[in-house]
Structures are given as structure tokens and as C-alpha cells.
Amino acid sequence: MKPVLAVKDLSVTFRTEDGPLSAVDRVSFDVGDGEVLAVVGESGCGKSVTAMSIAGLLPRTATVDGSVELDGTELIGADKRTLRSIRGREVAYIFQEPMTSLNPVFTVGHQIIEVLRTHIGLNRQAAHARAIELLKLVGIPSAERRVGDYPHQLSGGMRQRVMIAMAVACDPKVLIADEPTTALDVTIQAGILDVLRGLRERLGTSIVLITHDLGVVADLADRVAVMYAGRVVETADVHDLFAHPEHPYTVGLLRASPAAGRHADAQRLNEIPGLVPVLTEQPDACTFADRCPRALDTCTSSQPQLTDRPHRVACWNPVREPVEV
Amino acid sequence: MDSLALEVEDLVMHFGPVRAVDGVTLRIRQGSVVALVGESGSGKSTVGRCIVRLLEPTGGTVRLAGADITHLNRRRLRPHRRDVSIVFQDPAGSLDPRLSVGDIVGEPLRLMRRKDISAKVSESLRRVGLRPEVAQRAPHELSGGQRQRVSIARALISEPRLLVADEPTSALDVSVQAAVLNLLADLQRDLGFACLFITHDLSAVEYLADEVAVMYLGQLVEQGPRARIFGSPAHPYTQALLSAAPVPDPAEQRARRPVLLGDDLPSAIDPPPGCRFHTRCPVAVDTCRTVVPERRTIGEGGHQVACHLVNDDGTGPDVRPVASQSQLLSPGREAP
Questions:
Q1: How do residues A86-113 score in pLDDT, each as one tens digit?
Q2: Does the distance separating the beta carbons of B206 and A189 come in below 8 Å?
Q3: B48 and B88 Cβ atoms separated by less than 8 Å
Q4: How many angstroms separate the CA atoms of B23 and B58, rounded?
Q5: A279: containing domain
Q6: Which pTM value belongs to this model?
């Protein structure tokens, strides 16, 4: 089956005062119809830059190479008109902070209606009715009343639900959710994850879920791409990845993630020593080598490529034995 | 009897009409770690700020090692300053960017007019896993994890009896968070200070807290030994908190369904009557809407809960849906 979104050899370099900065290095992944792909990694790994580059949201200091195909249409290097017709309509975004994406001086209904009128050309009445439907779809109680609320009248969780309603207003093929629950409390997060799950089931929306939280990945993802220092280091089916992580970084991340009920007797959590490198250019070596407990000589002299199996790993000395996490 | 590092009695902190903290009672024994857990707006950080007297409480008392510091003025507070330190969530915001790391770490000692400050700074930096040369650097030259180590070094240089750690790892990446949590656990074991660990993340404190206190909308709803809180949480809110945090295991995570509490957090200006949690509680009954639940001791080990529905022996409703064993074992689709 053809993927809805196909990212191939995507590289992003920023021009900075200190010279070029490589943020994303030849990242490739596919997202199938109705599939949830989680892109997971820590600060600075390039996951958000990858997400923003998909629909051309990066500033002009960024140079983007490679290919992003949405349903067969190439987006990298596409003209402004093509991008404008795709953004919001075929690819929609939700971000961590809903308040920065909502206009404080208009009601949430007004903002959803505007999306519906601009992109789909609904008349005012139809758009109003559809806005209420959308608010119901994302689980906002008494939507008929809430449609007239201003963003500041809503709780953080409600605002994120409104953002999701706006994002899916045009029934996009791909929803890019960049840390959608990171700013929310856990009891609120659970509800938002439920909404995203519902969208995939009811509307068949493909979702690219950008997150640092392996618990969120475990909850929602079908497949996972683990990023480190601008590269995808491992990608696999979610069950396979958690049961048989092969990249030492993935293993380290899993072991470092605390989970209630699992550390009662533990004296310490597992750490990953060292720091994420800041790269002016991508070296011909594994970028994780100097933090890796399994590093070989090869790792510092040659860059490992992703293997070709369904469970793909970029590592010269992958973990094959069962791991205890 | 063990001596107490901290006694907080019926603490109240109101900001105008906002009732941020409304009657919190908490004790920390010398050398033990209490985790104060709650979500945004629960008032947990305000409790921390009252304890280190960044705020003067509206009511109640705060005793540090037996001394009542609730309403002491600046001058009379000074002798008690060395007894308690605080570490904040955002090290970038709490370290003066114009000072060198050495000046930042040594500042508490300078205020106490101590001698040999630079030797103590080196020692304190070494203790938190930083090289003494870091003293010459500016905070912005350090990574987030290193900055948090600097905050910890500053907090511990006066050898306080009590460390208040307010979300010390929330702004950090998972791998760095683990290192800072380990460091705090090691230091606590070696130096023996008492610690109030304020966090929104129950899972982060499981292995370092001796006791856990859970806060909701300005009040404690449950507190007790760690094993009791994690093993047999009695309050529906504690149960919901535990069930809501997703576990990093797809098969297990998909078998469990979180308790959905709804998004509308009541306001601390006009908290709900009766039990403050009743508007979001899945098992609330009429009594909960009108009568404020008393704090009661249930079972052993000082496990306390404020809920009408929990029996004196600790039994009561469990709002967490039960996943059957077969669902837990089968990978793949989520539970119906």
C-alpha cells in the first residue's frame, strides 16, 4: 500500500552566527493510511524540526533537502500556493502550547468557523453547525455553549481540544501533533490521548506524534522512529521496539524512563552518561558513540546506516540479547 | 521519637481571593524524604515557598527543627536560613546570569559571613559531580542538567537540615532527569538532610520518597508511606493520578484504561463545597457535595486519607478499571 506521507532523505541545516548547524540528517520514514507514527527523542534531536519541515513551517535560515511526498505531491521546494493549499487542509498541526496558537480576542467558535469558511467555503450557518459538531467530536461538553467562549475561559485541556477540533476541521490526511500533551497534567493528558485515538479510529486520520514521552508512545503509536542528534537511529513496530529495542540509545531511554510501580525496590534509575552533541556538520561516525556502552572502534570511524529489515536499526553493535528494562 | 525537621500545621496561604493553600498539615522526620505530589494549581509549590519563607503564610504554623518561623521578620529569620534551602524547576531562571558559577554556589556562605568560601565551593561542586573549574564559568555556558547540579550545590553548601526541591527535574530530558534524581538520592543518603520533593510526576519519586502526600486544590487528600500510596492508594484522586500516567510498555498500557476525570479544574477562588474533588470524582455521592471530609488514619504506618467513601480499615472504592490478565498478556489491540 502506498504511504500517505513519505519522507525521504530529509536534511535540514540552519545558518547561524556560529556557522551552519545540522539539525536533521537524511531522515526517512513513511506514514500509512490511518497509522500513528511516533517520532521520539530528547531535546535537540531534530524531531520538531522534522515535523515543521513537512509543510514548510521553518524560518528562512533553514535549508531543507530531500523529499516529502504527501499522497504523491512533492512538498519540498513546492511554491507558496501549493503549500498554502496543503497547510491546514491536508496537513494540520497541533502544538504543545494551545494558547500561542489561539487568538485571544476571538471566540473559539469564531476561529473554527473561519477555518471552515476559508478552506472549505461553508456558509456561516453551516460552518457554525459544523463547529459545534467538531467540538463534540473532541469531547467538549455542552459544545453549544462553549462555542461562544473565549480561549481564556477554557482550561488548558479544553484549549488543546479546541486546537484539535480546528486541526481536523478540514479532515486532513495527516495530523502532526508536536508534544500535544507535554504542557498538560497527567489526568488531562489521558483525555487528550483518547481524543487522538478516537480521531484515528473514526476519521482514519494518519498521525505523526512528536514526543519525548515513551509512555505516550506506548499508549498511542503503531510504529516508532527514535531520533538522536538529527538522525533516525531505530524504527520498528511499537510492540517490537519496546520488547526488543536494538539501539543502545533506545535501550538507555527505556531504562531511564521512570514508571510508577516499577522502581519500588530500585536504588537508582539508569542514566545515559554524557550530553547530546551539537553538530555543525554530521560526522562520518555514530553520533551516539561517545555515550554508548557498546561502542566499537568502527563506531567512531564510520557512520552506521539503517538496516533494511522491518525493524530497522542504525548501529554497528546492536543489542540482540533480551534486555531488562 | 524521631526529631522533626519540619512541622507544618494547618498551613493557609491566600492571595487575595485565591485560596492557594487551605489547611495543609505535614511533618518530615529528620533525614527522610516526603514527596508532595499534585497537578497544576494544587498549591504544592506555594507550600514549598511558605516553608522557605519566600512567602509569609496567611495562617497556620511552619516549624523548622522545632523553631516557629511562620511570621519572623527578615532579621530574625536569618539564623534559620541555613536550615533550609530550595531548588527550583528552572535552573536557567533561578541562577543569576551575571554571576560566575562559583559566586552563585558560594553566595549563601557569603551572606553568613563565612570564611574559606572557595574551598567549600569546590567541595560542593565536586559533590554534585561537577569539576571545580566549573566555578569560573557562567551559567549560560552549562547544559540544563549541569545548571541544575549548580542549583543543588548552592542549596546544599550551607548544610541545611531540609531541602525543598520544587520540580527539580521537570524541565530536563529523560536521560538527564535520571542522573539528577540519582544524584539527589545519593546526596540525601550521604548527607542525611530531610527533603520535601515537590512534583507533578508520581513515577519520578517512587524510588526516593519515604512518604508521599497528595494535594488537590489547596488541600492534602492522602498521605502515607510510599508502599501504601503506590500499592493501595485509597483516595479516588490518588488512584486516578496513578492510572493516568502512561507506562512505557505498549501491551500493558493498552490493557489499562485511565480514569478520565474531565478537563474542568474548579477554581481556587471558589472551591467546590464539601469534598473539593467531588466535581471530578467518578464515585462521588451526595454527602461528598455538602460535607467536608475529615482527615482520618487508615491502616498502619500513618496512612491518612480525606474521603467519605474510604472505610476505617482502608477499604473503599477503586475507580481504576480492572484489566484482565489475558488483556495484559496479549500484545496488539487495546482493551475494548
A1: 888 899 999 988 888 899 999 999 999 9
A2: no
A3: no
A4: 10
A5: 225-235+247-260+269-325
A6: 0.89
